[in-house]
Amino acid sequence: MATKALAFTFSFNDLFGSKAPPHTSAKVSVFSVRCSSGNGERPWKNSDARLLLEDGSIWKAKSFGASGTQVGEVVFNTSLTGYQEILTDPSYAGQFVLMTNPHIGNTGINFDDEESTECFLSGLVIRSLSISTSNWRCVKDLGDYLTERNVMGICDVDTRAITRRLREDGSLIGVLSTDNSKTDEELLQMSKSWDIVGIDLISGVSCKSPYEWVDRTKEEWEFSSSEGPRDTFHVVAYDFGIKHNILRRLASYGCKITVVPSTWPASETLKLNPDGVLFSNGPGDPSAVPYAVETVKNIIGKVPVFGICMGHQLLGQALGGTTYKMKFGHHGGNHPVRNLRTGRVEISSQNHNYAVDPATLPEGVEVTHINLNDSSCAGLAFPAQKIVSLQYHPEASPGPHDSDNAFREFIELMKHEKNQTPNENLHQLQSV
């Protein structure tokens, strides 16, 4: 071990200049610092992971969470916070989520903010992993949480550069690996041989049997100042990857909720005699689940329905329209949407890679909302068939609460159906 001694000599004049205290001694103080340079380990982690994109680019990073090799579609999310809700959103199945906010993990993990019982995403990509947590609800840190859930994460990677690439080229398939035995060529081949388009991802995230949901939004988190409805409505919610806060918001508005699997027959749903049916959010390509489209077809027109995200896209297809894959999708809690009926602008929470083409919809279907970033369809209504739908997430988990009134609109639609008289115009209900 090599050592070096450094000697430092100071006088009071060196420290205080001309303002040295009076009557001070000119005695010189001498001390030495002995430094050593050994072969010990560095106090920081070296890069031990690779993210390889299908365009051939290789991004070195540091791993946290689980180890191994995973393939998925890389998308970026512009939310400033809410990473735990994002991790547990089933709509991210098959995807790596890149957070554009550079600092992630500072609030740790708690069990109140989970949107499902599992983490369905393929991996998490961030710029900087917080080395400490500070939140009164925190029970563990992000790294330990991902390890327990067997989810891979990487940090110390240029997320800004990757985001710019995704914005220019569109969403890309990537392979994330901590396995040094795999060559870059092998990982590149994996990225080129896998595709998320045309894959049924809904069946892997849906519940396996029906169940009743009763939990409401907790009093301390309730943000709606309006009084709850007097009537109770029975809603059958199709679980295509449903988030817990969607169910909590419906329950808070007075609904009795029966959650059913994605493959639940329409005939069995109608036997329950519901006041309304919710088609939930979910992952992947709506064209890859024709059985779900058929279910929607057999329910619309019989009871009021509300579609959210995937449910919105399935309604579009069931009505005879088409959906298309967007360049890089909408993922974040800050997307501006205009309500075309009222002119009101909502800041919305969004997570989808597909959209409904309004030009393919039949006469009578009304586009009610548009995304102001790209003018894509963000909401539909078909009064004659008792349909309302939104492309985004009105429960706002994570995100702002601007769109919560959509649940009340669904309540009013069911209330009107119960009390309707022949030939009434359902269109009047949509301007709540």
Notes on the structure:
By secondary structure, the protein is α/β, with parallel strands linked by helices. It folds into two domains: 49-192, Carbamoyl-phosphate synthase small subunit, N-terminal domain (Glucose Oxidase, domain 1); 201-420, Rossmann fold (3-Layer(aba) Sandwich), CATH 3.40.50.880. 20% of the residues lie in helices and 31% in strands. It contains ten helices and 21 strands. The chain has helices at residues 12-16, 83-87, 142-149, 159-169, 184-192, 244-252, 266-271, 290-299, 310-318, 405-419; strands spanning 2-10, 29-37, 49-53, 58-65, 69-77, 95-99, 103-104, 123-125, 128-129, 152-155, 172-177, 211-213, 233-238, 255-260, 276-279, 305-308, 322-339, 345-357, 366-371, 377-382, 387-390. A ten-stranded mixed beta sheet has the order 12-14-13-15-16-21-20-19-17-18, with helices on both faces. Strand 3 (49-53) and strand 4 form a beta hairpin. Helix 8 (290-299) crosses helix 9 (310-318). The longest helix has 15 residues, at 405-419. It is globular, with a radius of gyration of 27 Å. The protein starts with a strand and ends in a 13-residue tail after the last helix.
